[in-house]
Amino acid sequence: MTAPGPAVDALTARFVAALGRRGAMADLMALASLGGPPQLSTTPPDLPVLAHLDEALARVGEEVDDQLREAVTLVASRAAWTRTAGYAHDEGLFAGYAHAPLRGAEDDPDDGVVLGLVLLGPGVHYRAHHHPAEEYYLPLGGLRWDHGDGWVDEPAGDLVHHEPWQPHAMSTDRPVLLAYLWFGEVGTPSVFVRNDETP
After folding, report:
1. How far is CA 104 from CA 34, 36, 52, 149, in A?
2. What is the model's pLDDT at position 45?
3. Model confidence, pTM
4. What is the dihedral of CA 130, 121, 41, 105, to 10 degrees?
5. Residue 44: which pLDDT band, with cuts at 50, 70 and 90?
6. Sign of the Cα pseudo-torsion (159, 142, 67, 44, in order)
7. DSSP secondary structure letter of residue 35
8. Has residue 198 got a pLDDT over 60?
C-alpha cells in the first residue's frame, strides 16, 4: 500500500467490520458518507508527542496486525496533527497528546462524521472528559480506560463506544495510537468534567 487514500480506506474498513458486528446500522450508514482524499499536511507540526510516533506505530504491528500498521504508518507521518486548545492548562496532557482528523469536517456544528487518529505518549493521564458527539475508538495498542464506572484494561483492536456526553478517561504506560470516529455534533470540542486521580 503506497497511497494515503487506500490507507485511510483500510482503516475505515476496520471500523465498518466492527460496527457491523455490533449491528450499528445508523452509524454504518453515516460512515458510508465519508470519502475523498484524506486531510494531510505537507509540513509536520512541531509537537512533543510526535517523538513517540514510531514506538506507537510499532505497537500496531505487535498488538493488531502488520497490514493495519502499514496503512496507519502511511498516513500518521503526514497527518495534520493538532491539539485541543482547551487542554493547554493541563501541561502533562498537552505535551503528551495530539489528534489528527483524516476525513470529515470538524467544523460541522450539527450533523457530521469525522475519522481520525489520536496519539498519546507514555505516562499520560487523559483526564475524564466528555463531548456531545457520539464516539467510537479503535485502540491500536492496549491501555487503561475509565468509561465512567472505574478503571479497566482494554486490549488493542476491540471497539470502544461512548454515548454523547458520556465521561471517559485514559491512562498510558507506553505510547499508543487510537483511531476514532465522531458522529453528530463534531464541531464541539471535548471538555474536562472533573478533577480525577491517575489510576
Report:
1. 6, 9, 26, 31
2. 87
3. 0.93
4. -10
5. confident
6. positive
7. -
8. no
